Amino acid sequence: MTRAKKVILLLSLLIFVLCALYLGNYFYKDYKVESDVSALREIVKDAAPKDTPAPNETEPPKYAQNGMLNAYFELASKNPDMVGWIKIPDTKVDYPVMYSNQSNEYYLHRNFEKEYSDNGLPYLDYQCDLSRPSTNLIIYGHNMRSGAMFAALTKYKSREYYEQHPNINFDTLYEEGVYEIFAVFTTVVGSKDELYYTEFIDAQTPEEFEAFINSVKSRAYYDTGKTAHFGDRLLTLSTCSYNEKNERTVVVARRIR
């Protein structure tokens, strides 16, 4: 074997080892994140009242003494930044929702323990107020290539996927909520025709609300046959798309109960 071939072989082996280490580290971090979140889900599951108590078993109360839902009391005690839980049935979206009143950057790359994490956690826009509540609650989450966090949102570009997953469950610490999706669209941040959905927090008039709904529906991939009216409570989920730079996939829903 010539010297040149030996160098090429060694370089190829080195690249292979580096790639293997990179992939191994990537999958380990993803496994660690999923393991940590699974532990949180188990706490919620164990604390939530059972739909059908076992014989001779007393059903636990739905609320803790302070009026908080039992399912979230333990987690909220561990981290007061938790403001709710979001779940889209039969998808990977099943996470605590965090909040920082200072900015939207804090939980972009932090886990429930406030340690660094590439995945971060879904978080509520810092401009939103759950106590009033705001007209539009905006929740952001990463689109992880592993399919974690809000990656499932990009599948809503398919009408078939929407029809299979038309509702979103978003509970605050004190109130359960179900929302029906009425529009799915994309917008590119910084583009000339960007839809500034992140600036729509509170509607002061019916006209302002209707203008936002019309803008959203005009961008929608398809007509769901659903809509929203002034006085409805909205939920907006946002994630990166990766189709082009700075593109966002946005799912908008209204509360039905």
Annotate the secondary structure layout.
Elements (H helix, E strand, L loop, with lengths): L2 H45 L22 H9 L3 E6 L6 E5 L24 E2 L11 E5 L18 H6 L2 E6 L5 E11 L17 H14 L14 E7 L6 E9 L2
Structural features, described:
- There is one protein chain.
- The protein is an alpha+beta fold and about 260 residues long.
- Helices cover about 30% and strands about 20% of the residues.
- It is built from four helices and eight strands.
- The protein has an eight-stranded mixed beta sheet.
- Helix 1 crosses helix 2.
- The longest helix is centred in the first third of the chain and has 45 residues.
- It is globular and about 75 Å long.
State the strand order across the main sheet: 2-1-5-6-8-7-4-3
Work out the strand percent.
Answer: 15-25%
Largest sheet: 8 strands, mixed
Low-confidence stretches: none
Secondary structure tally, helices: 4
Q: Name the average pLDDT.
A: 88
